[in-house]
Amino acid sequence: MTNTPQPDFKVASNGGVTALYVVNPGILALDNPNYIGKPFLFLANRIDAELPAPEVEDGVGGIKPYAGRQTDLEALLQGRTTQGTLPEFVTINDEQVAMEKLLGGIWLSRLYNAGLRGLYVPFSFGLFHQEDVKDWKAQGPSVRTDLDQFKLVLAQYDAQKQRPAPVQHLGLLKRILRPFVGPAMER
Description:
alpha+beta, four-stranded mixed β-sheet, two-stranded antiparallel sheet
């Protein structure tokens, strides 16, 4: 039996917009907990290409939900995994979180009701677009736009992965080696 690694992100695309959901518990443990389940949206380069993506206004009025363009997404995904298995629940900061919460929360119910497959892509100029705008206006931002801040979180996560694991069970090691190296090892 092979153990498929858990991905860092899950990615979905629809109508010129790509949604990037953060699903790695190690990354989420370092991130702002208010962002759990909210994706970053990356705009296709062909849409309003003369404007920076964070300045592109949604067509229904005044909302700027996009964090970047496809080139930004490609740079972010470099060296990251988007394929792999996801458990039903993950532990983030000692709290059990349902995976469906990481993959869109409110949007999942829309997705299932529509009979679609895959992850939901909000603000993608298609089905449920007006509902996304309505939710944003009623409840505040429903996607992430803090891409620069998130890159710092990724750098912190990468630095933690590079640190050597703490040495554990040194006492056991001393007991095993004691007959071979003598009492000097006990110090």
